[in-house]
From TrEMBL:
This is adenosine deaminase. Keywords: Hydrolase, Metal-binding, Zinc. The lineage of its organism: Bacteria, Bacillati, Actinomycetota, Actinomycetes, Micrococcales. GO terms for molecular function: hydrolase activity. Residues 20-365 form the Adenosine deaminase domain. Its EC number is 3.5.4.4. Belongs to the metallo-dependent hydrolases superfamily. Adenosine and AMP deaminases family. Pfam families: A_deaminase (PF00962). It comes from Microbacterium koreense.
């Protein structure tokens, strides 16, 4: 299949922050403000590596850039240790949504692993309730300030643990009360989706939507497992799906690409890819193609018609926002306003919402970009 190179459309003088955005792949413990980590860590008696907000932000950014998903994930230990009480979870969730509002997000899904927040004696239901309280407080405050935002929880099971069935049951029990989907995360290599087949079977029987981290630290087999064992409706990252594409020739400004069966299946069924450009570079997920944003296969996937979406993954570790990610992509690939709108429409179409709400969200995005 041929693809065309971009023209010279540029975004001059446009405030990307004001554009309506949809955030599908954003971790709660990856988006805690450094100042909040200092407060909560001090209250919990945690030995923090830095005592200054700016220095702590630098510490996270430096240690989250090793080119390894496993090392990248180790930076979360400190944050999670400070999120073991109702008050801390509610505060983090409230501030998380406040930061989405400031970034122009109109719909977001926040993913997090309840099992990692039981150290203070709370139950699984307690921690979900605490996070939901923070979300609703921020939604109400935003509404009072004239910004309409809706945020749903994605409950995550850790793929190296054995309690995914419990988390699946927890997610279904909170359906209609703030939880909109299920996810598995953690070290991808050696922990395939098939280990959690019982949980995915349970979710399928209850028609509960799932997204699965796949195609980040592991390749095509991991993506197959997410689709076949996990019944994933979206792929968390999924960037290594590009390994199933072969550039066979170039003629002038046209590049001809051959699809593998897996890539064609994902493209033809419009399964959204939750791409996180900065994070993908940090974790080494795109090392096969290079180490700069211009090397990221985002543009190849986009031009070939995949349902690409733009995400932060972990705002603190990547020191980023959706606005920044869109800016970086625009600089790398010369995108115009229509391209940025397409990314938001893809995300809206893939949101774990009823069709009526997705259609309303699509209208909000269209009106916002028109203005």
């Amino acid at each position: 299949m041929p693809i065309d190179q971009h023209g010279d459309a540029k975004l001059q003088g446009l405030s990307l922050r004001r554009l309506p955005k949809v955030s599908l792949h954003d971790h709660l413990d990856g988006g805690v403000r450094p100042a909040t980590i200092l407060d909560l860590g001090d209250a919990a008696g945690i030995d923090l590596p830095e005592t200054d907000e700016g220095a702590l932000a630098d510490w996270f950014a430096d240690r989250a850039d090793p080119g390894s998903l496993v090392e990248y994930l180790q930076t979360f230990d400190l944050v999670i240790a400070s999120m073991q009480t109702r008050e801390s979870l509610t505060r983090v969730a409230r501030e998380f949504v406040e930061d989405l509002v400031a970034d122009g997000v109109v719909y977001g899904e926040v993913r997090w692993a309840p099992e990692q927040h039981l150290g203070g004696g709370l139950s699984l239901d307690d921690v979900v309730e605490a996070v939901q309280s923070g979300i609703e407080e921020a939604e109400d405050a935003a509404d009072g300030a004239g910004h309409d935002i809706r945020v749903g929880q994605l409950l995550t099971a850790m793929r190296q643990s054995d309690n995914s069935r419990d988390i699946a049951e927890l997610a279904v029990s909170w359906r209609g009360r703030g939880v909109v989907g299920f996810d598995i995360a953690g070290p991808e290599k050696g922990y395939p989706a098939s280990r959690h087949r019982e949980a995915f079977d349970y979710l399928a029987r209850h028609f509960f939507p799932t997204t699965v981290h796949a195609g980040e630290a592991a390749g095509l087999d991991s993506i197959r497992g997410a689709l076949l064992d996990g019944r994933a409706l979206r792929l968390g990252h999924g960037v290594r799906l590009a390994e199933d594409l072969e550039v066979v020739s170039s003629e002038g400004e046209e590049v001809f690409v051959r699809f593998g069966d897996l890539a064609r299946w994902v493209r033809d069924r419009e399964i959204p890819l939750e791409l996180s450009p900065s994070s993908n570079l940090q974790t080494g997920a795109v090392e096969r193609w290079g180490r700069t944003m211009e090397d990221h296969p985002f543009d190849l996937l986009y031009q070939l018609g995949f349902a690409v979406t733009v995400n932060c993954d972990n705002r603190t570790m990547s020191r980023t926002s959706l606005t920044r990610e869109l800016h970086l992509l625009t600089e790398a690939f010369d995108y115009g306003l229509d391209d940025l709108e397409a990314f938001q429409l893809n995300a809206a179409a893939g949101a774990f919402l009823p069709i009526e709400d997705r259609e309303e969200l699509i209208e909000i995005i269209g009106e916002g970009f028109d203005h």
